[in-house]
Amino acid sequence: MYFRDEYSKRGFFYNAHPAVVALAAGIFACLLTFLASYLMVADLRRQLAEDMLDFSLVLAGDIQAADRLERGDMRGRPLLDFDRRILHWPDGGIEACLEGIAAWQTAARPDLTRPEAEVLARPICGGDRMSTLRGDLLETTDILIAGTGADGARQVTSLRIMRGELVPWTVLVTRPGQLAIAVWVSLTAGAFGYVVRRRQYRAYMTAREKASMDALSGVLRREEFEEKLEAAVAKIKAAGGAACLLAIDLDHFKSVNDRFGHAAGDEVIRRCGQLIGGALRAGDIIGRVGGEEFMVLLPNLPKYVAAEVADRLRKRMVSQAFTFGSETVFVSTSIGVASLMAEDTVTGLSQRADRRLYMAKRRGRNCVVWEDEGDADY
């Protein structure tokens, strides 16, 4: 029961085998591709229907459709393109008609040969209303239509249907339907990827954070603190900035363990970690470097200001009451402060802070030492 509850709470993909996730992603991609293809084909069929309607209107003699075609309003379609030309009926018999139309066609359509033009013109000159000729690979279709103009004079209309220039990028950005499909596919695929990965990513980030943090005090583990300290000091020195390092140790901590047990000592460590973290800035780096010892890097602070911060922290710590059974205990701290010098290494900075911490211990504890004779850094 617990497994099912936990599984349903975290979601299907959280504990799924990679093969299952891959199969689900493949099925989703297949469905998405099918739907996108269906919508694109439907949009292109609609465009083809509009083009064919315009074409049929021209063939039926629709003057307005013919005028739109003449002005070029129907050109540039992604599927079909049209070109119309009009010739007054050649005077004379069939041979004169054939000669006039064929000569006109070859001049207007340079890709038509004279025999092809004659084949296209012969049915019209013989009395048919319409004649057609398909080009190679169905790239073009030429149509001749016999009719009369607005003035009642006989005329021949040459209509060429051509395959439109399908430039994918142009079709995408100029046709709202195709653009909407592309945006929909991108957003849907992104949403699916987000759903699949978000819980694993959160779990990874949580695990990484836990790995870098001391479970008891809630501040950085020693290894993580030293790594971040090294990087921060290098960055501060490169920028010519100031920084101070505090070495903090709980006074008489062993007596808390001896009198009240290790659970009480753990509670003191936990609460002190919270107090230190809550009293400092977001950019300060805090780590637990020993059993009851902490270190804090204070970037962009001179030593006299860091000493004031350390003293406020000391007062805050010593005012915190711990109750174990019927007894109330106050735990004080000793703090050493060292400021970063231009020639400093991380090791030298840490050693100087530790030395001043031990000086605070020798001076009776519950105090802050921020310089000593012969090494008064600023």
From TrEMBL:
Spell out the InterPro entries in the cross-references.
Diguanylate_Cyclase, GGDEF_dom, Nucleotide_cyclase, Rev_trsase/Diguanyl_cyclase
Task: Give the catalytic activity.
Answer: 2 GTP = 3',3'-c-di-GMP + 2 diphosphate
Which residue intervals define the domain GGDEF in the entry? 241-373
Matching entries from CDD domains are given as: GGDEF
Cross-referenced Gene3D superfamilies: 3.30.70.270
Key word Transcription regulation present: no
The UniProt record lists the EC number as 2.7.7.65
Where, by residue number, does the polypeptide cross the bilayer?
12-41, 177-196
Top-level EC class: transferase
| Keyword line | Membrane, Transmembrane, Transmembrane helix
Q: Name one GO molecular function term.
A: diguanylate cyclase activity
What is the name listed in the Swiss-Prot or TrEMBL entry for this protein? diguanylate cyclase
Q: What is the lineage of its organism?
A: Bacteria, Pseudomonadati, Pseudomonadota, Alphaproteobacteria, Rhodospirillales
